[in-house]
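Case 145 in the screening queue. Each case pairs one protein sequence with one candidate compound; here the compound is zinc ion. For every case the pipeline is the same: read the inputs, emit a complex structure as tokens, and attach any notable structural observations.

Predict complex for case 145.
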Amino acid sequence: MPIYEYECPNHGIFEMYMLLSDFDRTWIYCPESYCAAACERVHSLCNVQPDTMWAGHNTAQGYFTSKSEYNKLLKEKNLETLTSRSDIENVRKNVAKAKAAKKEKQLNNLTKHLTNELKDVTIDPDGNTLKETNKYVRARNKPTE
Ligand SMILES: [Zn+2]
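Case 145 output:
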């Protein structure tokens, strides 16, 4: 049974054992005899959840000293914090897949480009170009006036 604190205007703050189902009872009648004033629940220190970022946290989004500020920014940027291990693994897998696909595409583009650039160049077994018809070579060999 949780203990809640209530404040009587005549008797001050007192503690009461309440049922867990009474969590949303924000006021009760004063239990003292001949009082019966309405007593509002007060939040004792142990009921108040501390801000988990109060000491300051460096995050990927910057430095934060308030969890609510941090959550606000995440919402603004449409980001979410992954908490389940399988979600994190899935994101990592997808990132790795995307990186591999990008690398393969770049390699294909490079191969296509080089094949096109070097199509007229004959390379001997020693790696020397025999027929310098590559456009860069042509430009280099252009006689100067
Ligand atoms: Zn009272």
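Case 145 observations:
- The chain has a mean pLDDT of 84.
- The helical segments are 67-76, 85-117, 135-141.
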